[in-house]
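Severity: low
Component: inverse-folding endpoint
Summary: output formatting inconsistent between runs
Steps to reproduce: submit the following C-alpha cells with default settings.
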C-alpha cells in the first residue's frame, strides 16, 4: 500500500507525477490528466479537480504580484495604460504557467484524502 499522506500527494502532484506511484506522468497534454498511469495503471481521472486549481492559481498569483503592483503604483505613479500593459500580460502568463501545478496539487491532495468523483463510483 502506498503512503497516502497529504505531503506525499501534494509533492508528487506539484512535480506533475502520478500521486500513486510518483513515477508516471500526470498529464497527457496541457491540463488533461492521463486516464491511466503509464507506470502503475492508477486511474487518475477519478480525482475531482475542476474548480479549485484556477482559484488557487489566481490566489497565488494575486498574492505574489500585488505587492509589486502597489509598489510600482505608489513609487513611480505611471499612467494606467503603462500599468495595464505590464501587469495584465504578466498576470495572465503567470496564471497559465501555474495552473498545471495547482491542478497537480489538487489531484495529489484528493488522492491522499481518498476523495473521488461521485459519478465514477460503482
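Observed output (run 2 of 3):
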Amino acid at each position: 500500500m502506498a503512503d497516502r499522506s497529504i505531503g506525499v500527494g501534494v509533492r508528487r502532484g506539484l512535480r506533475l507525477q502520478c500521486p500513486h506511484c510518483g513515477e508516471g506522468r500526470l498529464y497527457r497534454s496541457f491540463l488533461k490528466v492521463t486516464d491511466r498511469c503509464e507506470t502503475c495503471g492508477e486511474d487518475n481521472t477519478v480525482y475531482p479537480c475542476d474548480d479549485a486549481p484556477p482559484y488557487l492559481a489566481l490566489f497565488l498569483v494575486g498574492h505574489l504580484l500585488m505587492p509589486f503592483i502597489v509598489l510600482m503604483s505608489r513609487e513611480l505613479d505611471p499612467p494606467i495604460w503603462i500599468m495595464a500593459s505590464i501587469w495584465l500580460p504578466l498576470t495572465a502568463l503567470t496564471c497559465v504557467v501555474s495552473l498545471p501545478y495547482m491542478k497537480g496539487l489538487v489531484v495529489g491532495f484528493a488522492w491522499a484524502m481518498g476523495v473521488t468523483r461521485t459519478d465514477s463510483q460503482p
